Amino acid sequence: MNRQVVFRVDASVEMGLGHLTRCLTLADALAAAGARSCFLMRGHAAGLAHLVESRGHQVRLLPDPPVRLAGTDDSGGPYAHWLPTNWQQDAAQTRSALDEIGAVEWLIVDHYALDARWEHACRRGGMRILAIDDLADRDHDCEILLDQNLVRGMETRYRGRVPAACAQLLGPGYALLRPDFAALRALLAPRSGEINRILICFGGSDPSNETAKALEAIASLAMARLAADVAIGATNPHAASVDALCQRMANVTLHRGANNIAELMRRADLSIGAGGVMSWERCCLGLPTLAIGIAENQADVLTALAAAGAIMHIGAAASVTDGVIAQALHSLLCNPGQVRLMSETALALVDGGGAERVRRAVFC
């Protein structure tokens, strides 16, 4: 029996690729249960359609208006600008796409600019809705709410924001990670805490070029034993300058659009990176992390991970210099016991089975 699932998600330099990445992971897991997935994305994400299609899923692009449409009511919200139109037109275009697709069992939405109003407007008989969120800053009209993050007050943060009958899947036990993370976790040797190889990765876009700061920090330490892998996304706007910086440094390898990030994490001793989906990937492989927040919505999760002892959080990108990174890195290089404990704590948070748990909740 073929089950039709539709994802409404976007990606861009500002949004990053995290929302799309985790939706692709869930679509792959649902495909194993016989589901067919179609991704509805705005026209500005057309350049990323190949990522979806290469995994065997369909893509339909919602046409962007030539001029951004304002909301017909108080649509508000700090992420409203992530849509090139208002939520009402987005809902109307989504409904049209759903009509063309036919019978849809689940509509899965992962978008900070969409909320309960959009979800209610898209409802149709026989279709259920799963909302993926991180912020708990708006209401949802859904049967399942998924928030894979570790934050203070996790169990109560959606109280009053979802229907009483909504099933809430909360915490990093539901982190949507590709199967290769769990596979490599099973082969992982205990980490000693010694740092010889560093992975620098700030996600798919890194608009403020934190990658360059991390490279400058490593260079300033002038430690011949340190090697580094630098992973940047295909949409990174600073690719040329990062490449030039890597070429000037010894023992540094640049990986652009890498599809082996799990392997790069496995062989690294420390990561310098941001929050988002990669937080849970690193935890799954017990990779200690020097973390820098590159978006306001990452702050609560990074704070919670630091409080748990899984990472060292050194602040938001705007206030972190290469000197701050160098100082924090030097302290970890001198304290392998702390690094080892970070690894053990991270491993205990995420086991790599989250996508399968969500699949069972969807197709129970």
UniProtKB/TrEMBL annotation:
<protein>
    <submittedName>
        <fullName>UDP-2,4-diacetamido-2,4, 6-trideoxy-beta-L-altropyranose hydrolase</fullName>
        <ecNumber>3.6.1.57</ecNumber>
    </submittedName>
</protein>
<keyword id="KW-0378">Hydrolase</keyword>
<dbReference type="InterPro" id="IPR020023">
    <property type="entry name" value="PseG"/>
</dbReference>
<dbReference type="GO" id="GO:0016787">
    <property type="term" value="F:hydrolase activity"/>
</dbReference>
